Amino acid sequence: MIHELDELILGNMIIGKGVYGFHIRVKNVPGIAANISQAAFKREVNIVSFIPSISSQEAETASIFLAVDFYGKVVSPTDFLSDLKNTPGVIDVQLISPKAKGNVLVDERFFPLVFSESRVILFGLASLSVLFREARRVFSPGAIDSLMYHSGYAVGTRLFTVYASKIPDIAGREALELLQAFFLGAGWGRSEIVRMTERSITIRFHDLWECEIMKGLVEKPASQYVRGILAGYMTLALRRIVEVSESKCIALQSPFCEFNLKIM
Asked: In this predicted model, what pLDDT tens digit does every residue of 203-242 receive, in sequence order?
């Protein structure tokens, strides 16, 4: 069952007046977040973003991007900087001043963005929609569809190879649940397993990005890339050839996308 979820605001860029940032290096010990929050509470300033980054659970230190709203406050960012430097567990703090006439805050010390141990870049759906639309205009839609499917298939086999090395003996439903976690964690779409037997699987996606950006551009189910990922990933996970078709699609005004996996 799919439920409504809260948005997860990502990135280390914030737009708004009066917001200052702090790049904080801390000890990786319990209570650090509470100590920093307590410092803000004492000064009566609101934390609008708190993004920790830690290389591993065993790392001795971690970094934090902290954004604080000082608009209309008596306390200054430099006052709070002094508070943070004296906070237990804090090793070092750098003040980050907003740019673009005081309207944009970004932590330049956090780069690159990393998801699941790989560098990622953020594309908005509007940008992707233009990219896909122009590709289909310049080249034939059939060529683009073939490219996307085969690229997705290769990505799917790579995903399984990478994850299987971290979780030995994963297969079947557990392997599919791991792929679902990847899709959700990466913001690609929310999925649910509708049915799973020895011969077939039906999986349903809500808000699948690939089909959302194709609304109004296609006359048949739009997913090629994700369809390819499902086929490549599950072929390795099940050790049997898997063929995937999309029977319902939000690009065609269905409330969700539905994929049928035929296990050969």
From this structure: 999 999 999 999 988 999 999 999 999 999 999 999 999 9
Q: Give the orientation angle of helix 225-238 with respect to helix 141-166, to 10 degrees.
A: 40
CA-closest candidate to residue 201, choices 167, 227, 166: 227
Structure tokens at 223: 């997913």
Token pair of 59 as six digits: 């790392």
In terms of domains, do 136 and 256 share one? Answer: yes
In this structure, are 155 and 230 located in the same domain? yes
pLDDT tens track for 105-150: 999 888 888 888 889 888 899 999 999 989 989 999 999 999 999 9
Pairwise CA distance, residues 134 & 176, whole Å: 33
Question: Looking at 111, 134, 152, which one is the last position of a domain?
Answer: 111
Q: Tell me the CATH number at 241.
A: 3.30.1380.20
> What pTM was estimated for this model as a whole?
0.85
